User: What shape does this take?
Amino acid sequence: MSDTAPRPTLEAVAARAGVSRATASRVVNGGDGVTEPLVERVRKAVDELGYVPNQAARSLVTRRHDAVAVVIAEPETRVFADPFFALQLRGISKELTAHDNQLVLLLVEGRDDHARVGRYLAGGHVDGALVFSLHLDDPLPGLIQHAGVPTVFGGRPGWSDGKGGPLYVDCDNRDGARKAVTHLVGLGRSRIAHITGPLDQTSAADRLDGFRDVRTDADPRLIVESDFTPAGGESAMRELLDRRPDLDAVFAANDLTAAGAMRVLRERGRRVPEDVAVIGFDDVGPVAEQTDPPLTTVRQDIEDMGRLMARLLLRRLDHRDGDDTAGSLRAVGATGTVEISEGAPSGVVLPTTLVRRASA
Assistant: This one.
């Protein structure tokens, strides 16, 4: 057995740099009040010795844990089966990693998990939280407020008017739906059905509103509530065909729902798009590009929305800690560029685009 070399200490760093231990500690742990020449000497000593700061000691100085909780209000069976969540997590992870922060993933399997998540957030383990896929009756917002944890929400919270409430990032769901249905009308389709998402989520409710903006006189039999899953899309499509076998178009609230609907149309002998045109929402590549035929859909930049959520939270944490260097932010993605300045409304809503493929 070989002896393990002792880890370099803060005292060793101070001795190598020729400064006091207190000065070395302030530099290593992000404190203020040290001149630039001394900072450079301490950093050089850290590099030469391979010193790794003690996180607990650093937190005492900076009041930061460099960790962010990502709370998804869905069970793991849904999260790991839906590529939407993978894209959003990828965006969040990229941004947190770029700022040397850790991602702590918390999932909500059922009602019993809400208290667990609330206790964790209140326990001082993380600096802030990113929360998405909320439902209207979800107790998480109240638990988060009680915990006092800085938070950015993914999706428009149902209790917010976007003018002074919680900070959130969303796409323009209503306008995206209008674009989809307007396109179907332009193709000459007149019996257009809508498969919604769960209407206790604002994204699904907004997309239904966008559908109704264009189809003001829509037959109620052409609207079926679903759950953003392929199985839900299949079930809803069967119900629609039983109700209105003469329908000639479907706007599905997400790509997975559209994929399920297309499977049932094929089973029933309906050709897409000749007999029934189909449009989805999200533009999740692994789904939209691999349906048969490839899916026309409304694109929201999911990964960029995740990055923006993390960016906004980190900026909020910097301002809380007295860092006034963070100015406006620019959200740049495939759907366009949005400038976000200090004092902007709490809701950041990004544009959507219609991506035309063969299904409509």
Summary: The CA atoms of residues 290 and 296 lie 11 Å apart. The first strand starts at residue 67 and ends at 72. The radius of gyration is 25 Å. The chain has 14 helices and 14 strands.
